[in-house]
Design goal:
single chain; 156 residues; alpha/beta; Rossmann fold; six-stranded parallel β-sheet; 6 strands; AB_hydrolase_fold; Alpha/beta hydrolase
C-alpha cells in the first residue's frame, strides 16, 4: 500500500511511526514539511499528493492539520492527534476519516478531536482511543495505526 505520510511540527521524515509502517510492508512518501510556514507545508504536501496515486494519507499532529487543509479527493485519511485548531482553516474532516488520539495528550487537547468529530458529522467509531502521550509511538498505538491504515487502504 502506498502512503503519503505528513509528519508533525518539529518532526522529520523517517520517524518511529512511518518507519513502523514501512517495516510492515507499506511504501511511504514523506515530504519534509517546513516548521515555520504552514501554507508552504500544505503546498508541499499537495504537490506530493498530486505527483502519484496514494492509498492512504496519514497526518500526525500538525501533519494532520496539513492533511485536512489539502485536497485529497477520495483518498482516505488517518489522523493522529490532529492539530487542526492550531494551524490552517479547516474545521472539519471528510467522511470516512479515522482519528487516533489519547485523552492523556498534553499537547493537543483530546476535546479538540471530539469537536472535530462533531463538526464533521463522523460517528464515534471514527475515533480510536490509544496511547499514553501525544506522540502515539508506544507499541499499542503503533499497532492501532497499522490497523487503521490497512482498514483505510481497503477502501481504495
Amino acid at each position: 500500500m502506498k502512503i503519503l505520510y505528513l509528519h508533525g511540527w518539529n518532526s522529520v521524515p523517517g520517524g518511529v511511526k512511518p518507519t513502523y509502517l514501512a517495516q510492515h510492508g507499506h511504501q511511504l512518501v514523506e515530504p519534509a514539511l517546513p516548521h515555520d510556514d504552514f501554507p508552504e507545508a500544505v503546498r508541499i504536501a499537495q504537490a506530493a499528493f498530486d505527483s502519484q496515486p496514494f492509498d492512504v494519507v496519514v497526518g500526525s499532529s500538525r501533519g494532520g492539520s496539513v492533511a485536512v487543509n489539502m485536497r485529497s479527493g477520495e483518498t482516505p485519511l488517518v489522523l493522529l492527534a490532529p492539530a487542526w485548531k492550531r494551524w490552517g482553516t479547516a474545521n472539519a474532516v471528510k467522511p470516512g476519516a479515522l482519528i487516533l488520539h489519547t485523552p492523556a495528550d498534553d499537547v493537543i487537547p483530546f476535546d479538540d478531536t471530539r469537536e472535530l468529530l462533531r463538526n464533521s458529522g463522523l460517528p464515534e467509531s471514527s475515533l480510536i482511543v490509544t496511547g499514553h502521550e501525544h506522540r502515539l509511538a508506544d507499541a499499542d498505538s503503533l499497532s492501532a495505526l497499522l490497523a487503521a491504515v490497512e482498514r483505510q487502504g481497503k477502501k481504495t
